[in-house]
From TrEMBL:
Protein name, as recorded: UDP-4-amino-4, 6-dideoxy-N-acetyl-beta-L-altrosamine transaminase
CDD domains recorded: AHBA_syn
Origin species: Fluviicola chungangensis
UniProt similarity note: Belongs to the DegT/DnrJ/EryC1 family.
N6-(pyridoxal phosphate)lysine modification, residue list: K195
Keyword entries, A-Z: Aminotransferase, Pyridoxal phosphate, Transferase
Keyword Transferase attached: yes
A GO term for molecular function: pyridoxal phosphate binding
GO biological process, one term: polysaccharide biosynthetic process
EC identifiers of the protein: 2.6.1.92
PANTHER family for this protein: DTDP-4-AMINO-4,6-DIDEOXYGALACTOSE TRANSAMINASE, TRANSAMINASE
């Protein structure tokens, strides 16, 4: 075991995945073609949402989501510091202002009480939206966030990069799946190789709102539309020097607002479709690993708190809060186990410190960071690897 490295997460590519990509490479389409719509439909069905829009990566999904919902220079969005920086940067891309809320030390998710306090403490600020993150795969209690959003007139973007297939149980005791469009205006996903479904680079936005859906389709491709009903210029102009018949010529299209090229390619979509077929099976595997870890680490010396076992958790990560975190990290590494730290609080990244945030601003997030470690969690982990991670972790605290 010692000569093999166990990473904290890794993708799984099967012969079927490879064949799906080859088939698409031999078809007529390389960039957006029929596989995009097929992937979008399959993903919408998987999440239970009305619509899905495939984009080039999760960060592009966040950027377009904020653009579509809208933010101005004097408006604010509330974010969580325990996430990947992209969940916050998207507000800055659009010229908006950021406020952070602290995390709930039990769930590691954005603390709804902290969010409400920020809103109440800042009556002079125009707060427009919230971006809860389903951190590690635990889905945010979005029905509660929705109540808050309705009360204060806010939009919600759910960053569901960690949680495809995960759910929370709402106030009526119903399961609500990540990205199902019932509570968040838009939900976003990533298909980076460490995430549940890998397309190399790739992302998705889900929604139940047809207007947002149409807007996103335009924004992902330069702000260009080919829908004749939406055209703003005259038919005469479009036709040029020939007699106008009242119809726009076939070549005609309009760029109506500033969009981007955030398209996914057809062969990536083919890979995504193939990967999505194994999503349920892989989620089961992640949950069984989480169960083994929870059983092994409950009440163990050195372990302060963990992700634990929660039914709706999608277990992108399994997090331990431990004593002597760096000691454990180095010890695991010297035994071929490459754990990772998720995340360094975003408000303490130098870019955000320069905008005024400092240590002590969000005590729960900062305490969490000081002692968190993500141990290996990926569906192709075998029993031997799981037991090796458990015994090596325990060995560190028994030795010291
Ligand atoms: C991975 C990730 C992103 C960004 O996704 P990319 O596809 O890498 O751009 C955003 N938010 C979270 C929480 C992520 O884990």
């Amino acid at each position: 075991m010692n000569n093999k490295i166990i990473p904290y997460g890794r993708q799984e590519i099967t012969p079927e995945d490879i064949q799906a990509v080859i088939d698409t490479l031999q078809s007529d389409f390389l960039t957006q073609g029929p596989k995009i719509a097929e992937f979008e439909n399959a993903f919408a069905a998987y999440t239970g949402s009305g619509y899905a829009v495939a984009v080039s990566n999760g960060t592009a999904a966040l950027h377009l989501a904020v653009m579509a919902l809208g933010i101005r220079e004097d408006e604010y969005v509330i974010c969580t510091p325990i996430t990947f920086a992209a969940s916050i940067n998207c507000v800055k891309y659009c010229g908006g202002q950021v406020l952070f809320a602290d995390i709930d030390p039990e769930t590691y998710l954005m603390d709804i009480q902290s969010v409400e306090k920020i809103i109440r403490d800042n009556p002079d600020k125009k707060i427009k939206g919230i971006i809860p993150v389903d951190f590690a795969g635990r889905v945010a209690q979005l029905d509660e966030f929705k109540k808050l959003a309705s009360k204060y007139g806010l939009w919600i973007i759910e960053d569901a990069c960690h949680s495809p297939g995960g759910f929370f149980v709402d106030g009526q005791n119903e399961k609500q799946f990540a990205g199902n469009g019932k509570f968040a205006d838009l939900s976003i996903f990533s298909f980076h190789p460490v995430k549940h479904i890998a397309t190399g680079e790739g992302g998705m936005i889900t929604t139940n709102d047809p207007d947002l859906y149409n807007r996103l389709l335009t924004l992902r491709s330069h702000g260009i539309t080919r829908n004749t009903e939406l055209f703003e210029n005259s038919v005469e102009f479009a036709v040029g020097n020939s007699p106008a018949t009242g119809e726009y010529p076939l070549w005609y299209m309009e760029m109506q607002e500033l969009g981007y090229n955030y398209r996914l390619t057809d062969f990536q979509a083919a890979l995504g479709i193939s990967q999505l077929k194994r999503a349920d099976q892989n989620l089961k595997k992640r949950k069984s690993i989480a169960k083994s870890y929870t059983n092994a680490f409950t009440g163990t010396p050195g372990i302060i708190h963990s992700s634990g076992f929660i039914e709706g958790h999608a277990y992108h990560l399994f997090v331990l809060e431990v004593e002597d975190r760096k000691g454990l990290y180095d010890f695991l590494r010297s035994h071929g186990i490459f754990a990772q730290i998720h995340y360094i609080p975003v408000h303490l990244m130098p870019y955000y410190r320069k905008q005024g945030w400092k240590e002590g601003d969000f005590p729960m997030a900062e305490r969490y960071y000081s002692r968190c470690i993500s141990i290996p969690m990926f569906p192709s982990m075998n029993e031997e690897a799981i037991n090796y991670v458990i015994s090596t972790t325990k060995l560190f605290y028994e030795r010291s």
